[in-house]
Specification:
Layout (H helix, E strand, L loop, with lengths): L1 H25 L3 H25 L3 H29 L8
Helix pairs in contact: 1-2, 2-3
């Protein structure tokens, strides 16, 4: 019963990630794309933990999820700083 709940939650997260992927592909600005990528990274971290529960090995997946979350955070900060320095964030549809 509990495995079915986590499996359904994992499937729902994958569907929500696909909606965020649409924002990454067709976002009107660079900041929308960066935010969509960050949302996908956050949902991937939670999905890793759900997979750990399903495989009854949460300890291993927690370490991987923490490392992935840290990488996602650093990449988001780096991309944001890069595009803010370029000052071309709002020049996509002009």
């Amino acid at each position: 019963m509990i495995h079915q709940f986590f499996l359904a939650a994992g499937i729902a997260l994958v569907l929500l990630m696909s909606l965020s992927l649409i924002r990454v592909i067709a976002g009107p600005t660079v900041l929308d794309r960066i935010l969509g990528g960050s949302v996908i990274g956050t949902k991937t971290t939670v999905l890793m933990l759900i997979i750990g529960v399903l495989y009854d090995n949460v300890g291993m997946f927690v370490d991987i999820a923490i490392a992935y979350a840290l990488l996602n955070f650093i990449a988001t900060l780096g991309a944001t700083k890069f595009f803010l320095r370029r000052k071309s964030i709002h020049l996509e549809h002009e």
